[in-house]
Amino acid sequence: MIDEKRLTQIKIDNDTTVSVIKSKLLSKFDDKIVHGFSTRLGGVSKDHLSSMNLSFSRGDERDNVLENHRRFAKALGYDEKKLVFSDQVHKDHIRICTEEDAGKGIIIESDIKETDGLMTEVKGLPLITFFADCVPLLFYAPDINTVAAVHSGWKGTFLRIGPKTVKLFRDRNADISKLICYIGPSICGGCYEIGPDTAENFMDFNDGIILRDNHNGKYNLSLQKAIRKTLIKEGMKEENIEISDICTACNSDILFSHRKTNGKRGNLAAVIMLKQ
Ligand SMILES: [Zn+2]
């Protein structure tokens, strides 16, 4: 069970408290950015979507999802009507978002398709990506004041969407030795068992720590450590990469886990925004 002290509890009105998870590294830049990862706590959705489902695609009532967004946004401090939604398909496309993208996916219909990563240098434009075991990556380049939110499941990790995001920061003249990455709450290596077909894609990580062969046709994969290794290979400093040790499957009472519930679940979200 997760220690309650690991959660940041934010009272948004007299009877509502929203629990969020914050990065220690990104919190050092609280004067420059807003960031956070949601939990199941503090929303209005029912049953297996209880209570803070942030996706319109999980069979929830639209009004519930909108109210959850209002609450999560109020807790973190951004305007939910300006959110830019990803369209996650386990690929490696990253979009550079502009002011014209504000509200796409929440109040206006979106032309953002097949996009697992969002990046922006626009202040006041919150980027959101969705999770229930897959790995959230939140990036901040302090020298060029630019942020990114990325979804990296095993396919995205195999396709190196994290390092590709780093390359985009480099293209924009960021000093990669200063780039920060938060690898957020997601399924841990102990819970994430995979078969040989998936493991085949990670044989270059077969070091017993990132990928462990259980010698029974099953393997355990730490996506978080695999991602960290690829980010360091791309030039990031180890001390600028934070891996959350909070597992979605180990804590499915307060976080949504696809594996733990056989897919009967809502979606968590990771948000990052440059402050005005
Ligand atoms: Zn776990």
UniProtKB/TrEMBL annotation:
Classification via CDD domains: YfiH (cd16833)
Entry annotated with the keyword Zinc: yes
Molecular-function GO terms, alphabetical: copper ion binding; hydrolase activity; S-methyl-5-thioadenosine phosphorylase activity
The UniProt record lists the keyword Metal-binding: yes
Annotated keywords: Hydrolase, Metal-binding, Transferase, Zinc
InterPro entries: Cu_polyphenol_OxRdtase (IPR003730), Cu_polyphenol_OxRdtase_sf (IPR038371), Cytotoxic_necrot_fac-like_cat (IPR011324)
Pfam families: Cu-oxidase_4
Source superkingdom: Bacteria
SUPFAM superfamilies: CNF1/YfiH-like putative cysteine hydrolases
Catalyzed reaction equations: inosine + phosphate = alpha-D-ribose 1-phosphate + hypoxanthine; S-methyl-5'-thioadenosine + phosphate = 5-(methylsulfanyl)-alpha-D-ribose 1-phosphate + adenine; adenosine + H2O + H(+) = inosine + NH4(+); adenosine + phosphate = alpha-D-ribose 1-phosphate + adenine
Function of the protein: Purine nucleoside enzyme that catalyzes the phosphorolysis of adenosine and inosine nucleosides, yielding D-ribose 1-phosphate and the respective free bases, adenine and hypoxanthine. Also catalyzes the phosphorolysis of S-methyl-5'-thioadenosine into adenine and S-methyl-5-thio-alpha-D-ribose 1-phosphate. Also has adenosine deaminase activity.
Similarity annotation: Belongs to the purine nucleoside phosphorylase YfiH/LACC1 family.
Name this polypeptide is given: Purine nucleoside phosphorylase
Annotated organism of origin: Eubacterium ruminantium
